[in-house]
Amino acid sequence: MFTQSTVFVLLAAILSYSNPSFALNPVDPNAPAAYFATTTPTNATYVVAMNFVRNGDIYIHMHSSTSCSWFGVGIGDQMDGAGMMIAYKATNGTGVVTSVRRASGGRSEPVWLGDHDPEGPRYEAIFTDQYAPVANTAKKGGIQISHGLCRNCSSFGSMKLDYTSKQQPFIFAIGPDSKLESDELDAPLRRHEFYGHFTMDMTVSTSNASTTYGRVPAPNLPEANGAVADSLFATQGASEVLDGHEDSEWALPAHAALMCLAFVLVFPMGALLLEILQSVLWHGVAQIVGVLFVLVGFGLGVHLSHHYNRSRNFNSGHQVLGLIIFATVFIQLGLGVIHHVIYRRTKQSTIISKTHLFLGPLLILLALINGGLGFDLAQNHHDNIPYGIVVAVVAIIFLTARLWLLFKRRPSSYQPDRESLEAYKTFGPGYQDIQTPVSAGSAAHHFGFEMGTHNTAGRQLAPHRGDMNRPALAVKT
Ligand code: HEM
Ligand SMILES: *[C@@H]1O[C@H](CO)[C@@H](O)[C@H](O)[C@H]1NC(C)=O
Ligand SMILES: *[C@@H]1O[C@H](CO)[C@@H](O)[C@H](O)[C@H]1NC(C)=O
Ligand SMILES: *[C@@H]1O[C@H](CO)[C@@H](O)[C@H](O)[C@H]1NC(C)=O
Ligand SMILES: *[C@@H]1O[C@H](CO)[C@@H](O)[C@H](O)[C@H]1NC(C)=O
Ligand SMILES: *[C@@H]1O[C@H](CO)[C@@H](O)[C@H](O)[C@H]1NC(C)=O
Q1: Integer Cα distance of 103 and 117 in angstroms
Q2: pLDDT at position 158, please?
Q3: In terms of pTM, does the model score above 0.90?
């Protein structure tokens, strides 16, 4: 019969065969270690226990509530340049992957260091530690555990470990409750939900040889009564949380909301207003509101872009298309205004109005596609489903309204010279005018002119039927 320990012995044998380092590192329950444990204001548990070895290795146990998309610790007192160990759930959702990273370039997210430097830091997960039987696994509703050895990890960041320090600074952070499951060491991270500092006493946690490694996880508090609880851990040889910050990425939802509102709602509504109210004024007001949304949304987008390595160079499809759309929105606004001014003077359709009418729908279409690219860039791929549904529903409503307005406002398409005159009696006194066969355009002109009850201006352009710019030209302010 296989008992748990038989399994461990077997596993250890297999692992030590494939990786000789394990054979050299028997568990030493008395290895010196320091423990830092805290519960964040968002009720997430975060614990890190480390045993430092003077050769640069770090034996590390770290865990957090499984709800956190990632959790990590860094050496030093600031994020910029700090060497870090960051862990998150594996693709299967039950494993935990840990990668060695460094935050380069201001305050953007830590990126994996790669494995091209043979002397660079290397993280090796340890599964065989009898003190951590569920090492490197995540339990739904419980905790996720990263447990392993980081080789050559003491000095790859901007701050080296000082083994004599009683207050060696560290930083830690947990990621927001968003879906992140990846086997890749360079999996993209979302901005932290909580971060802070702490210090550890290196003199109680440093070993002189690599033959001993830290006994982890951190001790349960006496209140746990010997049971292994997921939340009760004690700090030992370390400070409390220093300078903890709740953080949120408000700019991302704000950017998305403003851009989506502008392109899904405001701009299409503004286009319809021209038809419904026959008012350039309200059309202009709506589109200027839309442009203001886009302006603020753009500012937030640029601000966001600096947060992530993936967006810092402004070379993602979403950003490039977004910049083009942003510039074109202003061209479109300019065209609208110029056309309006010219039209008021000349009452003539110009190439400008045609461009304006062509560019508007194109711009909206491109922006709707760009929204989808945005969700992809932000790793919120699944948000594209509700987004797509909303866009489809709005598109159907918009197109229906547009078609309905088109038919309602197009008496010229009746082709009066081919229909029984009876049909026109309902139109009132003007019907007599069309008894003489005339061009559809001029008949429509008479209708509009003489019926009076309908918008007069709307009829004057009937000769342009089939011409996209009819509505824009039709209106008066
Ligand atoms: C003009 C039309 C644009 C639309 C419709 C749009 C829409 C969106 C949407 C829906 C998201 C996803 C938000 C989420 O997942 O909650 C997003 C993310 C983002 N957008 Fe835009 N956006 C536009 C333009 C821009 C521009 C011009 C920039 C910057 C130059 C930009 C930069 C970003 C960045 C950096 C993200 C986050 C990416 C990440 O988290 O990695 N966007 N956008
Ligand atoms: C955290 O947990 C405590 C006790 O379990 C509860 O009173 C508090 O409301 C929780 N806070 C949050 C933000 O969930
Ligand atoms: C899940 O993935 C991790 C990392 O790839 C692996 O170590 C672990 O064995 C996997 N667990 C299961 C149940 O497949
Ligand atoms: C650690 O770095 C030293 C030199 O600094 C190098 O000799 C050694 O091979 C490295 N170890 C690993 C595991 O990369
Ligand atoms: C490690 O060596 C240093 C001096 O090299 C000594 O001060 C320290 O006590 C030693 N630590 C342990 C745990 O043996
Ligand atoms: C950061 O992103 C750029 C692309 O924008 C990429 O070429 C580079 O390798 C990334 N840096 C790291 C350290 O991953």
Answers
A1: 17
A2: 83
A3: no
Q: What pLDDT was estimated at residue 307?
A: 86
The helix/strand/coil state of 126 is coil
- 72 contacts 87 by C-beta, under 8 angstroms: yes
- Whether residue 229 sits in one domain with residue 137: yes
For ligand 5, pick from 53, 203, 206, 208 the residue to mutate: most ligand atoms within 8 Å of CB: 208
For ligand 4, pick from 100, 117, 119, 155 the residue to mutate: most ligand atoms within 8 Å of CB. 119
Is the Cβ–Cβ distance between 173 and 192 less than 8 Å?
A: yes
Domain boundary among 246, 263, 287: 246
Task: Classify residue 321 by burial, with Cβ atoms within 10 Å: 0-12, 13-18, 19+.
Answer: middle
* Residue 284 in domain: yes
Exposure of 261 by Cβ count < 10 A (0-12 exposed, 13-18 middle, 19+ buried)?
Answer: middle
- Ligand 1 center from residue 69 Cα (angstroms): 21
* CATH code at position 358: 1.20.120.1770
Q: Tell me 196's DSSP state.
A: E
Residue-number span of the structural domain to which 267 is assigned: 250-407
Provide block-wise average pLDDT over 10 residues at a time, the chain (477 residues): 38 36 50 88 90 89 93 92 94 94 80 84 85 83 90 86 94 91 91 94 83 57 53 80 88 95 95 85 93 97 90 93 97 92 85 91 96 92 94 95 82 42 33 36 32 36 39 39
Q: Are residues 220 and 278 in the same domain?
A: no
d(CA 436, CA 249): 69
Residue 417 lies in a domain: no
Q: Judge whether 138 lies within some domain.
A: yes
- Answer yes or no: are the C-beta atoms of 66 and 138 closer than 8 Å: yes
